[in-house]
Design brief:
Strands 1-2-4-3 form a 4-stranded mixed sheet, covered by helices on one side. A 4-stranded mixed sheet has the order 5-6-8-7. It has 4 helices and 8 strands. Strand 3, helix 1 (31-44) and strand 4 form a beta-alpha-beta unit. By secondary structure, it is α/β, with parallel strands linked by helices. It has one domain (2-160): Imidazole glycerol phosphate dehydratase, domain 1 (Ribosomal Protein S5, domain 2), CATH 3.30.230.40. The protein is 36% helix and 31% strand.
Amino acid sequence: MSTVTRETRETRVSVRVERGTGTASVATGVPFLDHMLVTLARTSGLDLDVEARGDLKHHLIEDVAIALGAAVAALGPPTMARYGEKTLAMDDALVQAVIDVGGRPYYRGPLPSSLYRHWMRSFAFEAKATLHVRVLRGEDRHHIVEAAFKALGFALRQALAESGAPASTKGAVSLEVER
């Protein structure tokens, strides 16, 4: 389990994440974000508790992504599978998410929503993950963004799964920062 609290003058975000069954308790005040986080929990198999409040929708969405990414980064055992991929169809949308949770942050999109494109980038950087999201088809923005969150969830489920051995020729990588 990992817990992250992020406070700024603009927002207060509390996130708890643990391996589980995909249950979620989410209250951000942004109904679509709540829906996406519940979807992410269900498809990833992670249990999420998220409480957030903030001044602007942009600040809130970004800070939830930052806190959730940091919490997910703390979950990974050294013997996780590390890589995950899912291509997901949802109505008119066809979206692929490919992730490497090996400690190298990078994001490549795009999504047809600047807020949720920014969510994906912020999440990937704080999760220390390489995340590629490809929109292969789709016209309805809601369907495309939701398909992206579902595909990300399934890819995370694969990447965080226990594999029994480090998925790197370097073996288990350790990085410690002292302050």
